[in-house]
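Q: Sequence in, structure out?
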Amino acid sequence: MDMLIDFPGGARVDAHFGPYTIKTDQPPAGGGKAEAPTPFSLFMASMGTCAGIYVLGFCKQRGLPTDNIQIIQRVHSSPFTHMIDKVELIIQVPPTFPERYRESLIRSAQLCAVKKHMENPPEFEISTEALVSAN
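A: Exactly. Output:
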């Protein structure tokens, strides 16, 4: 899937793919207006929401209500490198959630494609090319 990334002004950087546009911005301290999440915030949200898709699917397949289920995503960073060294996902379930499904619920969240790609990251290749003139 190709995405077109463009620069609509200020510190905004947007991604376009299919019928969607994902808008990003920087906080005022970074030259932006904070009108959209930062790219890194979207990246982090993709982990929790991806796990959530698998939790939702697990519950739907078994007819389990999801009304009172939520996932808390906690990020732990190294004080030395300031890089993330641990992402913790805590699936909170109501007291009525069947005990026999809790471990399976965890296993379903572990199927998240974003998590799998983080565990086996792709190679990055960055290059430039000149645009072809429309004249």
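The helical segments are 39-61, 102-109, 113-119.
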